[in-house]
Amino acid sequence: MKPFPAVLKEKKRYVIFEIISEKRVKEDAVKKAFFREIKSFIGINGMADAAPTVVYFDEKSKKGVLKVDNRALKQVEQALSLIREISFNKCFVHIIKTTGTVKKAKELVKRGD
Amino acid sequence: MKAFIDFVASEDCVSFGKKLGFSRLLFNELSRDKISKTKINIISPKSPEESKRQLRNKMIDIILDPFDKRGLFIDSAFLNIAKQKQISIGISFSKFLRADENSRIRLLHNMRRLTALVSKLKGDLVLMSLAAEIYEMRSPEQLILFGEMLGLSRAQATWCITESPKGIIRRKSL
Predict the structure, then answer these.
(1) Is the N end or the C end of chain B the one with fewer CB atoms within 10 Å?
(2) Where are the domains of chain B?
(3) Is B97 in contact with A82 (Cβ distance < 8 A)?
(4) Mutate to test the interface with B, among A81, A84, A91 (most CBs of B within 10 A)
C-alpha cells in the first residue's frame, strides 16, 4: 500500500502523564476517567478531532502515555488538569512532558523520568 | 528560570508544591477576621456591596473571585480604583475544580469576562490554586493552561503566576 504524503498524515503528540493518588489505579479506570473528562470539556465534536487514546499505562509507577492530535493538544491538557477522582479515589493528573514519538514517550516512562 | 509563586489554603500543600515546580508557596486562610499587616490579605467578597467596602480597606492585597452566579461584582470604576490602590484581582483554580459540570459553565463565563476586563484596563491579575489538599494542587504549567483557558495569552498567564505575586510580596516586604 502506498503511504500518504507527509502533508496528509495525522500529526500526533504523546503526552506523558502521572496519576498522583493514594491508592493504586487500574488502566481501565484511567481510560474511563480521561474519556469522561475530555468529552465533558471539549464535547463530541472536539473528541472527534482530538481522538485521545491511552496507548500505555504502567499501574505500578502510575505513569502513562496519551496519544492526541496535535491541534487539540492544549484542550486535552486543560481537560486532564480538571480530573479530580478516578474510580472514587482522589487524585490528580500531572503532565510530565509531551513528545512527538511513541517510542521516546514509552522510553521516558520506563526510565522513570 | 522563572520563579513560580502560588497561594494555598493548607499548610500540607506547601512542601508538595515545591516538588511540582513552584519556587515559593504562600499559605493563606480566607478569613475576614484575620487581616494583618504582616501577611498577604486575600478577601473573597460575597456581594457587590462587600467588594466595594473591601476596596476601602488599605490592608487588602487581593480581591478573590468577585462574582457569583448572577454576574460580576465589579465594573470599570472599581477596577480603576483597585489599580490605583495596588489591589490585585485573584482567580482561584480550586473554585473551578470543585464546581460540578453545570456550574463550571457559568463559572468559566464569569472568569473569562473578569479576565478580559482586567486585561483591558491593565489591572493586576493573580492566578492561584488555593488548594485545600494536595489533590487540588496543579503544576505551574497546568496553571498557565488554566490561564489560557480563561483567554489570556501564554505570556500573560505566566506573568500572573510569577511577576504579579512577586509584586505583592515586594509591597508587603515578606
Answers:
(1) N
(2) 5-172
(3) yes
(4) A81
Pick A91's closest partner by Cβ from B20, B135, B149: B135
Q: What is the ipTM of this complex?
A: 0.86
**Per-residue confidence (pLDDT) for residue B41, from 0 to 100:** 87
B70 or A20: which carries more pLDDT confidence?
A: A20
CB contact under 8 A, B133 and A90: yes
pLDDT in tens, A44-78: 999 999 999 999 999 999 999 999 999 999 999 99
Q: How many structural domains compose chain A?
A: 1
Range of the domain at A24: 11-111
Q: Give the list of residues 6+ apart from residue B15 with CB closer than 8 angstroms, or none.
A: none
Residue B15 confidence (pLDDT) above 70: yes
Average pLDDT score, chain A: 93
Determine the Cα–Cα distance for residues B112 and A19; give it in Å rounded to an integer.
29
Does residue A113 carry a pLDDT above 70?
A: no
The reply to whether CATH 3.20.20.140 applies to domain B5-172 is yes
Instruction: Give the residue among B114, B138, B117 at the shortest CA–CA distance from B128.
Output: B138
Q: B36 pLDDT exceeds 90?
A: no
Cβ proximity of B41 and B58 under 8 Å: no
Residue A36's closest chain B neighbor by CA?
B101
Does any CB of chain A come closer than 8 Å to the CB of residue B78?
A: no
* Chain A nearest-CA residue for B143: A81
Q: CA B144, CA B58: separation in Å to the nearest integer?
A: 30
| Residue A2 within a domain | no
Q: Chain A residue closest to B94 (CA)?
A: A82
Q: What is the CATH number of the domain that holds A87?
A: 3.30.70.3250
In a domain, A65, yes or no: yes
Residue A6 lies in a domain: no
Is A5 part of any domain?
A: no
